[in-house]
Amino acid sequence: MASSTELNPLKRSFEQLTESESKMSPGDECEVTEANGLIPKEFNARSYQKKVFQVALRKNTIAMLETGAGKTMIAVMLIKEIGQAMKMNAEKKLIIFLAPTVHLVNQQFEVIKIHTNLKVEEYYGAKKIDEWSAESWEKEIRDQDVMVMTPQILLDALRKAFMTIEMVCLMIFDESHRAIGNHPYTKIMKEFYHKSGNKPKIFGMTASPVVRKGVSSSMDCEDQISELECILDSKICTIEDKAELELYVPSAKEITRYYDPISFRCEDLKAKLNSSLSKSDALLVEMQGKLPSQFKDTDEIYKKLRKRLSNHHSKILHCLDDLGLICAHEAAKVCLENVPILGTTEEELYRASFLQCKYFLEEVLRIIEECLPSDYEKFLDVGTLGLEALEMGFISPKLYELIQIFQSLGGTRQILCLIFVERIITAKVIERFIKKLNYLSHFSVSYLTGGSSSVDALTPKMQKKTLDSFRRGEVNLLFATNVAEEGIDVPNCSSIIRFDLPKTVRSYVQSRGRARQPDSQYVTMLERGNIKQRDLLFEIIRSDRSVTDTTLNRDPNACISRVCCVDETSAYVVESTGASVTADSSIGLIYRYCEKLPGDKYYTPKPNFQFSLSGGSYEYTLSLPPNAAFQKVVGPANRNSHISKQLVCLEACKKLHQMGALDDHLLPYIEDPSRDAVIERTEESASGAGTTKRKELHGSARVRALSGTWGGKPDGVILQAYKVNFSCNLVGEFYSGFVLLIDSKLDDEVANAEVELYLIPDKLVKSSVFPCGEVHLDAEQVKKSMCFQGFFFNGLFLTSKKRKEYLIKTENKSLWCSSNMYLLLPLELPDPASHESVRINWRAIDGCASVVNFLKEKSNFSADHSFISEKGDSLFSSTSLSDTECKSSEVVHLANVSVNFNDLVNMVVVAVHTGRIYSVLDVMIGTSAESPFDLTSDAVPSNYSSFREYFNKKYGILLMHPGQPLLLLKQSHNAHNLLLAKPNEGGSLCKETPEAGGVVEKPQNHVHMPPELLVSIGVSINVLKTFYLLPSLMHRLESLMLACQLREEIACHPNDSPISSSLILEALTTLRCCEKFSLERLELLGDSVLKYAVSCHLFLRYPKKHEGQLSARRSWAVCNSTLHKLGTNRKIQVLGDMVESIAGAILIDTKLNLDEVWRIFRPLLSPIVTPDKLELPPLRQLHELCDHLGYFIKEMCVTKGDVVHAELRLQLKDVLLKGEGCERNRKAAKGRAALHLLKDLEQERGVSHSLYVSKQKKLEPADGSSFMDMAVYHHLQPNDEAVVGPVTHKKLKTIEDMLPVEPPANNSLLEDGFEKVCDPKLASPVSVSINLQKGGPRSSLYQLCRMLQWPMPTFHSVEHKSRVPIEFGEGSERRTGFSSFISKISLHIPNNGVIELTGDQKADKKSSFDSAALLMLYELGRQGRCVIGD
Questions:
Q1: 358, 1089, 1189, 1423 — which has fewest CB within 10 A?
Q2: Nearest CA-CA partner of 213 in 532, 542, 504, 537
Q3: Rounded Cα gap, residues 1013 and 1022, in angstroms
Q4: What is the DSSP track for 1266-1279?
């Protein structure tokens, strides 16, 4: 008789294979730690691992080893060996690692990633991989070496022809015993592997190759093993000598714990629960009958609802029988928590039906609570659950025994115990129950279930989080379903409890293998006297031993001839790609196709199957939803009902592909409407709404009608005149008429506009505009008119400092710009005897000009323009009066004129010390400048004793006539938005106060002032009052002018009837514009118009496309992003709304003529602005260019009078460039300076924004931060701007483009405001602090470069890989890895050359950057260029 060694050459050859054994590098095994569960540690391959590895190198192998024996590390050895061979041969093939669950995919991915230098990625359903395109798969295949995935992912990729089996050189099957029946493992092998002529190597891993319930004999075991080997085209390899295996893989001690049968029978309670179910089910049937029959899914919905009720009932009864009353109560609460909450818009009958589930569970809770005493929770507070709770049925004997096991584990928190249960509801309920037991509070409890479609299941994210907590010891007791049986690596697990018995040998072996600690326990719970349970457990144990004996004693050569039988199943293959769909997979594909069809919450598209039986054969008819490519297909007859259903689906798939509804990868064709010529999509990213970046990219349109160049003409000018009248609804309220003088003729709608202005509640001023022909002004009149307009608008709406500066300026030309050249002048009262259509109030204008000249003349006497003489007294005292004369006289002496008391009221004056305009309310008889400064009783106490002291100390004014009575003045205020009606009711200025709960009068702004500080202007109070109306009026008129401009620009045909400018303005006005109208109503109408017009167009253009495809195209064509791209090619929501509202405006204007709307609107569907036409502001271009090139810009601005001087300095490597600009505001001045710099860079050095900076993608610095965050070093001074026209409320403000401002002849003014350019060698060292945290040295170096205006340093890193682990850092920072980085830094110091240094070896690239940056900082400190702080 031959020896066993001769009979089994596999075992005999182990000793012969040691010649090529390779010793594994340190770090080839992993253990669970706090980080992510896996870190490398030093490891030498065990003897049995080497033997199996050598066999796997020679042929396809299934490694059968105990759980925890290191099968994964054998796979890693194989991956490294084959991966290295591929790289040496420069061959690009994939290694596929298949794991049946997401847990295992995560776990094995981490192991391979840590222990190899290959590119590894993980793939599973939650990553939405089933939505990937061919391009996505091509990228992954190109970028990765090892792909760890669930088998269904690979099967789908092979079927869709995104991947072929010939691309793979090695396939690893974790838990390979699953390769039976219809498992994806089996389908991969049968559909693709066995049909391939270039097969990859196979390596399988299992702890038990037998999965079926019980194995009655060695023959049964041999059959299952042979079938597995046949499918995987591999041979099982195990080890005979268990000594070494037992040394590394300790076996758990098997213990049986018995519990008594249930003695408390809850028959009455069960009867009540069954009755409640019957009642609720009957109510659902009744509700179903009330619904209209035309709803096709009614039967389906109610079928699901009734099934849901039954499932809830089943779960609760299971917990009642298996766990007791308390847990049944918890189960009802769990079910109630999972009842979905419906939205309020659901159809009422459906809502009532869904709520029936909730009512049923609430009734179940009440029924169970009636069986529990009100104080039942007292049983949970005692030291242990006693026999009383057991006898009353509060807990079952089985649950009671489990609690006893937990108590026997002791009080330590080091216990890691895994409890296996059969149902998810059991895991959830027991977990809740244990948490309520105070005497087990030292245990942390949780549960783990699979990611099934059950409402009780956990999400993959929660599964991973729970499992990681268990591995780290944060959870002591983990209740789990069979999802935790296979492959889950928890080395510290010390106890396994089978609360529910395993059903198969595989389940028994796998769950037993989770106990990995020495002296661990495997506890099986059996019911006393239960013969069925005892026989099941005995059969499983006997089968396990039979499997072990068979695998050890079988002759591999005796079974090697068996060939896998590949079923010739019906399939449809796409010739162009090789994608295939089988009868087996066709049903799923049909359902997926239907899911992609348009549906809503009331209708879910899905297939409908009907069959007929004739002659013993089934013939299925498949009906697809109405919006599918076709509606009905009949399949071939077959004697098997299920096969007949598959065949009709296969026929439907074939037809759908031929019709174009499935693409060449057999995926539902999701049409991208942008592929069509209707609208082209651009991929350029855009800044968010409201950002400064977006504001820069969208300039403001100029009102062309207000532009002009007449200001400097010596011969005068002829202007178009438009008279403006104001009429108030309150008796006795009068406003002066004004005239608007401009170069251009206005559109009739603007020239005859009427605007309502709302002052206070119940006070309305109606303004009307009408043309008055032409007006000729000579040069002197133009000069005085410009002076008048500038004086009032600056005096009313600017700050005190700027008002004063305006008054003392000798030249105001710089305040005017060509884009806003218009005059607003007051009119005389109408004179019936005069035939002049426009009678300008030249008296008021001349008087104002005289006041301005008077103030400027007086200011010239003072070197500092303070209106104060060298002696300290006022320069405006025209007469010398004694205090007695001042008090007794009825004449008040102002700075420029003497006025009788009676003529003072309503006089318009200007304060000489502030330039602010006031109106006189009253003469305060009995007061003087010597009066206390706190005249009113409720005034806040002041530091000044009198008005005289106040003006002396605050303004340095020594009053010459302090005896004159003070004047009560009403001071000017900012312009308000008068286009929107005030919400308060009543006739007074009022505001609501929360304290009073009602309305109180708003206090007026009144001041007291000595007369000698005031200058009479010579205009009436009505003129002053009108000035407050002009900003709102001009805003409305400018808006209408812009609307007319837009109408001209979008006019398609010259004969088109004009669209009302007011409608266009309404279509352009958003809710934020503080107007009484907005685009919302027109948008609603325009949205419908566009949808209708586009629907008609698409319906006629694409007669063969179904409604889903047409709907998708229409949605894309009229969505806000598309409509916005029509205007600016940037993503701003409001512009899409404007396009819709404009369409609505056109519809109204054309008397609801849809054909006319489409004719006018269709030519608008083309981009107005495209990326190639989009021009960035110069300063933005300069910043982006410097961001790209790594240079810093230094900005400096100073204000000289009304002009801002800006200088931008750009330090190149050895050249310092300067750009200078002068404008009225900082932004414009910096823009002009940036323009000079850009021209210098482009013309002299060939550097331009368009050449170096891509508009689609900006390059980032090496450390990932943006240079823009650190590129500007500011030296700014505050600056207020003067204005020459109405200043509206800031929400109404329009942007003006000012004329270029000439720099002053004396350049010393510019230079005096700037820092001198210093030679770096002469500059004092800069102090810099270093943060040694990650990124800190780089930030410090960047800060230093910014301060000294050096170019950014550059880094060059080199990666070094090692087969042995490298240690980095010390102490808590100590790390181990197989890759290291060394970086070289280069810093160019202007006019001083380049410094190059090399940093230390670091574990990652950014740390190596920090090391090099730190060395550079110390080197700069050594050279005296900086001082390193603490």
A1: 1423
A2: 504
A3: 23
A4: -GGGT-EEEE----
Q: Is the pLDDT of residue 21 over 80?
A: no
Reduced to 3 states, what is the DSSP secondary structure of residue 1229? helix
pLDDT band per the 50, 70, 90 thresholds, residue 1276: very low
Q: Beta-carbon neighbour count of residue 49 at 10 Å?
A: 25
Closest by CA position to 620, among listed 594, 598, 638:
638
- Token digits for 1142? 């404009």
Q: What secondary structure letter does DSSP report for 781?
A: H
The predicted model gives 758-762 an average pLDDT of: 84
Q: Give strand pairing partners of 966.
A: 924
Inter-residue contact 165 to 158 (CB < 8 Å): yes
Answer yes or no: is pLDDT of 2 > 50: no
CB 1060 within 8 A of CB 752: no
* pLDDT bracket for residue 1001 (50, 70, 90): very low
One-letter amino acid of 737: G
Pair of tokens at residue 1075: 């107007």
pLDDT at residue 28 in the model: 37
pLDDT at 1150: 72
Nearest to 404, CA basis, from 448, 374, 434, 428:
434
Cβ 1374 vs Cβ 1389: under 8 Å: no
Confidence of residue 727 (pLDDT cuts 50, 70, 90): very high
pLDDT-derived band at 407 (thresholds 50, 70, 90) equals confident
Q: Are 841 and 1023 in contact (CB under 8 A)?
A: yes
Q: What is the pLDDT of residue 919?
A: 92
Residue 87, both tokens: 């790289």
Q: How many CA atoms lie within 13 A of 826 on its CB side?
A: 27
Rounded average pLDDT over 1047-1062 = 68
Locus of tokens 């793979």: 168
Q: What angle do helix axes 842-859 and 779-797 make, rounded to 10 degrees? A: 70
Axis-axis angle for helices 1107-1118, 1080-1101 (nearest 10): 140
Convert the pLDDT of each residue in 431-482 to its tens digit. Answer: 999 888 888 888 889 998 876 566 667 777 788 888 888 888 889 899 998 8
Q: CA 146 to CA 75: how far, in whole Å?
A: 12
3-state helix/strand/coil string of 1124-1154: HHHHCCCCCHHHHHHHHHHHHHHHHHCCCCH
At 141 the pLDDT is 93
**Residues 205, 842: Cα–Cα separation, whole Å:** 103
Which token pair is 1170?
A: 């495209």
The H or E element containing residue 1158 is helix 1154-1161
- Which tops the pLDDT comparison, 672 or 1082? 1082
Q: What is the CA radius of gyration of the chain?
A: 44
The Cα-based distances of 812 to 429, 678, 805 in angstroms read: 85, 54, 11
Is 110 exposed, middle or buried, given 0-12, 13-18 or 19+ CB atoms closer than 10 A?
A: buried
Q: Given the structure tokens 């590098």, which residue do they identify?
A: 25
pLDDT at position 146 is 95
Q: Give, in order, the Cα–Cα distances in Å from 458 to each of 123, 336, 337, 450, 500.
A: 19, 17, 14, 6, 20
- Render 1258-1320 in DSSP notation, one character per residue: ----TTS--GGGT-EEEE--------SS----TTTPPP-PPPP-PPPS-THHHHHTSPPPPPT
Can you tell me the distance from the alpha carbon of 490 to that of 506, in angstroms, rounded to the nearest whole number? 19
The two three-digit tokens of residue 545, written as one number = 């031993």
Q: Using one digit for the tens of pLDDT, what is the confidence trace for 593-627? A: 998 887 766 678 889 999 998 888 999 999 998 88
Q: Is the CA virtual torsion 380, 386, 390, 396 positive or negative? A: positive
